[in-house]
């Protein structure tokens, strides 16, 4: 820990707290195949993680708005089938670090492009509920990341200034969201984004392991 006066840490979920890449990319590829769309590689699918679900497909493949809705609905159906016990795991030292932040009196929240119901389920499954003070999903905002609304909503909830807040994520979308809200940002290199992408987005610093987090 540093002597910086951080009162709030806002965490991304997919690729930052939990390793969901294989589950997400497999389900995306199955969705594309099921709807007869032009195929995309696992790596191309992974680069879309962090965006709202419908947008992951409309950015990945040129398509109509109606087809985007079909992709979203098909993905959700297939995801429920694929999301078996053990398909998603926490990254090393995540629980211990979040618990330590909580014990230090630092508020910890989640801001994700995943829907709130899914986030709440994972928070409970991983036993993080006692240490997470707020969960913001894509369905809790009008504008998802990289728009700063999820962070601004969180700041208002806690009555905390942006200068007292650290936003942590694995993609450029997370970093851009935090920077646009006026917060300090930390990129994690073990998730879905590359170090270069995190640097180009303006991350204040980048870590290789979650327990290297400095507040």
Provide the fold topology.
Layout: E1 8-11, E2 18-19, H1 21-34, H2 42-46, H3 53-60, H4 65-82, E3 89-90, H5 94-103, E4 107-111, H6 116-125, E5 134-136, H7 149-158, E6 165-169, H8 172-180, E7 184-188, H9 195-201, E8 205-207
Parallel strand pairs: 1-4, 1-6, 4-5, 6-7, 7-8
Antiparallel strand pairs: 2-3
Q: What do these coordinates show?
A:
The structure is a single chain. With 215 residues, the protein is of the alpha/beta class. The protein is built from 9 helices and 8 strands. The protein has helices at residues 21-34, 42-46, 53-60, 65-82, 94-103, 116-125, 149-158, 172-180, 195-201, and strands at 8-11, 18-19, 89-90, 107-111, 134-136, 165-169, 184-188, 205-207. The chain has a 6-stranded parallel beta sheet, with helices on both faces. A two-stranded antiparallel ribbon has the order 2-3. Helix 8 (172-180) runs parallel beside helix 9. The model has no long low-confidence stretch (mean pLDDT 96).
Report the average pLDDT across residues. Answer: 96
Main beta sheet strand tally, sense and closure: 6 strands, parallel
Q: Please count the helical segments.
A: 9
Widest sheet: strand ordering? 5-4-1-6-7-8
- Helix-strand pattern, N to C? EEHHHHEHEHEHEHEHE
Number of strands: 8
Task: Report the end-to-end length measured between terminal Cα atoms.
Answer: 6 Å
User: What general outline do the C-alpha atoms trace?
Assistant: globular
Unreliable residue runs: none
**Proportion of beta-strand residues:** 5-15%
Derived structural class: alpha/beta
Radius of gyration: 17 Å
């Amino acid at each position: 820990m540093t002597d910086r006066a951080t009162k709030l840490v806002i965490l991304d979920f997919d690729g930052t707290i939990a390793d969901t890449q294989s589950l997400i990319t497999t389900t995306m590829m199955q969705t594309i195949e099921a709807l007869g769309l032009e195929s995309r590689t696992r790596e191309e699918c992974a680069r879309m993680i962090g965006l709202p679900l419908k947008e992951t497909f409309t950015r990945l493949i040129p398509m109509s708005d109606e087809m985007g809705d079909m992709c979203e609905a098909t993905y959700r159906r297939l995801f429920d089938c694929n999301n078996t016990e053990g398909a998603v795991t926490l990254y090393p030292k995540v629980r211990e670090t979040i618990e330590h932040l909580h014990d230090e009196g630092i508020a910890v929240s989640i801001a994700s492009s995943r829907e709130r119901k899914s986030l709440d389920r994972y928070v409970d499954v991983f036993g993080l509920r006692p240490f997470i003070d707020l969960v913001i999903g894509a369905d809790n905002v009008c504008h998802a990341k990289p728009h700063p609304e999820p962070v601004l909503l969180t700041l208002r909830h806690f009555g905390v200034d942006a200068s007292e807040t650290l936003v942590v994520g694995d993609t450029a979308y997370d970093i851009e969201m935090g920077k646009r809200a006026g917060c300090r940002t930390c990129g994690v290199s073990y998730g879905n984004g590359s170090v270069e992408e995190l640097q180009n987005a303006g991350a204040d610093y980048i870590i290789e392991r979650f327990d290297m987090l400095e507040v």
